[in-house]
Amino acid sequence: MSAAPLRVGVVGVGVMGADHAVRLAHRVAGADLVAVSDPDTARAAELAARFDGVRVVGEPLDLIADDGVDAVLVASPGSAHEEQVLACVEHGKPTLCEKPLTMDGESSLRVVEAERKAGRPLVQVGFMRRFDPEYAEMKRLIDSGDLGRILLVHNVHRNLRAGASFRSEMIVRDSLVHEVDVCRWLFGAEIETITVLAPRPTGHAADGVLDPQVAIFHMAGGGMATTEVFVNSQVGYEVRCEAVAERGNVTIGLGQSVFVRRAGQYGGRIPDDWRDRFGRAYDLEVQAWVDAARRGEVAGPTAWDGYAATAACTAGMESLATGRPVPVTMADRADVLGGGQA
Ligand SMILES: NC(=O)c1ccc[n+]([C@@H]2O[C@H](COP(=O)([O-])OP(=O)(O)OC[C@H]3O[C@@H](n4cnc5c(N)ncnc54)[C@H](O)[C@@H]3O)[C@@H](O)[C@H]2O)c1
Ligand SMILES: O[C@H]1[C@H](O)[C@@H](O)[C@H](O)[C@@H](O)[C@H]1O
């Protein structure tokens, strides 16, 4: 591992970029936050002023090319990821790209191919749930084989509310993409067919938005998964997952850590958003990225995982439009990666 701290630049400093900047500056070992970039330069300047020695670089591509930046955390909107991650790969910079890797399967494949040409793994995708202690324990139990083969997974993914710009297809591409990754990871298999259905929409969604949605994944090898995504639930941030195996089942996300009785009522707290529920997962994710980058490696979800997830979501968006099951079309892994890389 390199003795010097990893000099990290953050591209896009909205909700997630600002949260990661604080994490890098105060909670992650072996990294120095050195630069931030956002087209909203006032927002970038305001964030930089909260730390010592953090520069504001006007253009995201200039930050990526900057010799004083060793590694880049991309937290811009998904539509900017392809260009920015390709630039990171071109400059040989380790990259942690927030999900989704890009907007569709084809563009994600271009990232996988660019990384392959660069000759070494550089891209980690921000599927933080793999680092969440509860999900990690579920995965360990499933992989131990003690419960027999995993057969089914049931997911619930609810947000308090979504902005008016959050359209029906974004529920697939930006929200369901987490369950796509979780299910590929838990089953150790690709999704062969995806179906996305919508019951009557809630009156709390913007006009024309199909919310909630129900997705069904048919996994290679015969496993199956169901997911409810409801981004205007009006309740809070709820993420639950139940994995059903031959001799038992595992449930996470019951939120039973603190249970209070008062004023004739009992119960716990439901967080407002992901930063609270997955705070520990993001810390572990970014620490794993920094540690791996200093060793010249990539930890956790790879560019291929990002590609597989966007390919499944591309098929999911088609299914949402037609109501029919859609096969997930992917390039052959051995052809693209040459059989070596994970
Ligand atoms: N892992 C998670 O749980 C999680 C949670 C929320 C968001 N995300 C992802 O993080 C990313 C950012 O989401 P957010 O909620 O922080 O969004 P946001 O809208 O709060 O912030 C986006 C920021 O990017 C800036 N921006 C716009 N175009 C840009 C460009 N071309 N280059 C650089 N910056 C640009 C905007 O000015 C804004 O400051 C998205 O990919 C989103 O899907 C992940
Ligand atoms: O971008 C966010 C983020 O990925 C959250 O983890 C998810 O719960 C939301 O649905 C999505 O909009």
Automatic annotation (TrEMBL):
Residues 135-250 form the GFO/IDH/MocA-like oxidoreductase domain. It is an enzyme of class 1 (oxidoreductase). Its EC number is 1.1.1.18. InterPro entries: Gfo-Idh-MocA_inositol_DH, Gfo/Idh/MocA-like_OxRdtase_N, GFO_IDH_MocA-like_dom, MI/DCI_dehydrogenase, NAD(P)-bd_dom_sf. Pfam families: GFO_IDH_MocA (PF01408), GFO_IDH_MocA_C3 (PF22725). GO terms for biological process: inositol catabolic process. Keywords: NAD, Oxidoreductase. GO terms for molecular function: inositol 2-dehydrogenase (NAD+) activity; nucleotide binding. It catalyses: myo-inositol + NAD(+) = scyllo-inosose + NADH + H(+). Residues 6-127 form the Gfo/Idh/MocA-like oxidoreductase N-terminal domain. Homotetramer. Belongs to the Gfo/Idh/MocA family. Involved in the oxidation of myo-inositol (MI) to 2-keto-myo-inositol (2KMI or 2-inosose). This is Inositol 2-dehydrogenase. It comes from Planotetraspora kaengkrachanensis. The lineage of its organism: Bacteria, Bacillati, Actinomycetota, Actinomycetes, Streptosporangiales.
